[in-house]
Amino acid sequence: MDKGCITMGRRDKSYSISLHDQAYKVLTGMQAFGESKREAVKNGTDRDKIFSANTYKTYWKHTKYFLDWMKQNHPEVTTLKKAKPFVKEWLQSRVEQVDKDGNHLSAWTIQTEAKALSKLYGIQPDDPDYFTPPKRNREDIKRSRSTTKRDRHFSETNNDELIKFCEGTGLRRSELSKLKGNDLMSVERIELAIKTFEAKEPSSYHQRLLDALYDTKMFEGTKYFLYVQGKGGRIRFSPIIGENEAAIVKRIQGTPKDEKVWQYVNSNADIHGYRAEYATAIYKQHARKIEDIPYDRVNKGTGKKFQSDVYTCRKDESGKKLDKKAMLVASKALGHNRICIVADNYIRGL
């Protein structure tokens, strides 16, 4: 069935489902929450699937912006198929849009909207209809780098405990709001969990849990971790670090096992900024001096030795060199799989 032309009734041509309902049906049909994205990529079945509930919510939100724009500017269009040629026009209008203060939408927002509409229509990067949004550079991340209007409504003094908690745990906002008293994991509790799950019959869940438990070995000397089920259901154990470790642990231990550690998380809190502080601190703890990293590989083309454990940054950080092993440790703590995400979006001030 054509995604763009969904009608109610086989004979009654006078009634069609609204654009809103057509898009909703397409996106909900892509829901594959809990499925393995890695396996889907291998099988080539990932293009028509959305693996994360949060990703679905984000895509649906921005899709509705497009549908509202269509209703205002092209009310004569009644099917998704006929609306498709207007995708680029809408995205370009979003690029040019400014608010009352003369500020443009961030490049991050534009890219998210481009991905949402590309998912809706099955547009691939090599498709001529694919919209190429502005590049996402570090300087485009306005939060955490300068005072904004939202910052004026957030008191660092009144939220001191929240800030210190975030900088010591690196949790996302959604993870912070779901954290419970029972999610605190001591080293002893982790060792017991490893023995318990190693003795069980293997399953995909047990293996994912064991892999996450084994990752805690990277953080030598860390006494406490937080059990986190993050984006896409990905499990990790985030180390609690920094000078406020004792206070963080005390708060969690003082929370009943089934109750939330934070009943309220201020919506103006700069969570991404605190995660960046956390990531940078972990990277510094584990990073070697670049000059101490051995030249262990030989370039087949030039015959020159190079450091395979050295990452060279790109974009606005072009030329900066980082220790890949330390980047991996920071990546595991944050709940990301690719070290380039940590380099491009979190590690700062080095």
Descriptive report:
With 350 residues, the chain is mainly alpha-helical. Among the domains are: 118 residues, no CATH class; 115 residues, no CATH class. The chain is built from 14 helices and seven strands. The protein has a three-stranded antiparallel beta sheet, with helices on both faces. It has a two-stranded antiparallel sheet with strand order 4-5. The chain has a two-stranded antiparallel sheet with strand order 6-7. β6 and β7 form a beta hairpin. α13 packs across α14. It is globular, with a radius of gyration of 23 Å. The N terminus is likely disordered.
Q: What are the key terms here?
A:
single chain; 350 residues; mainly alpha; 3-stranded antiparallel β-sheet; two-stranded antiparallel sheet; 43% helix
Short summary:
Helix content is 43%, strand content 7%. With 350 residues, the chain is mostly helical.
List the helices and strands and how they pair.
Layout: H1 19-28, H2 37-43, H3 53-73, H4 80-83, H5 87-96, H6 107-121, H7 160-169, H8 173-178, E1 184-186, H9 187-198, H10 204-215, E2 224-229, E3 235-239, H11 245-253, H12 271-286, E4 297-298, E5 305-306, E6 310-312, E7 321-323, H13 324-334, H14 339-345
Helix pairs in contact: 1-3, 3-6, 5-6, 7-12, 9-10, 12-13, 13-14
Strand order of the largest sheet: 1-2-3
Radius of gyration: 23 Å
Number of strands: 7
What structural class do helix, strand and pairing data support?
Answer: mainly alpha
* Total number of helices: 14
Strand content: 5-15%
Low-confidence stretches: 1-15, 142-150
Q: Kindly report how far apart the N and C termini lie.
A: 53 Å
Order of helices and strands: HHHHHHHHEHHEEHHEEEEHH
The main pleated sheet reads as: 3 strands, antiparallel
What does the overall shape look like?
globular
Chain-averaged pLDDT: 85
Residues in helices, as a percent range: 40-55%
